[in-house]
């Protein structure tokens, strides 16, 4: 599983990263996590509002910080 956290590196982006790591730990899942801060790369994925979460090259959320339970639910669906 490949996960991307999209955003410029702000406080909200960091919180989304931490919540994602917590969700993975809770589920006992292993995944690679990539932080993407390049605006061209973010726009290429069709994201106009950050932070955003991408699971296996599919944008699953943008413009808000998901809590770890919401992320766990999305991870199980992926």
Automatic annotation (TrEMBL):
Pfam families found in the cross-reference section: Thioredoxin_3
Superkingdom to which the source organism belongs: Bacteria
Residue ranges annotated for the Thioredoxin-like fold domain, each copy included: 1-75
Record InterPro entries: Thioredoxin-like_fold (IPR012336), Thioredoxin-like_sf (IPR036249), THIRX-like_proc (IPR005243)
UniProt-recorded name of the protein: Thioredoxin-like fold domain-containing protein
Species: Pseudomonas fluvialis
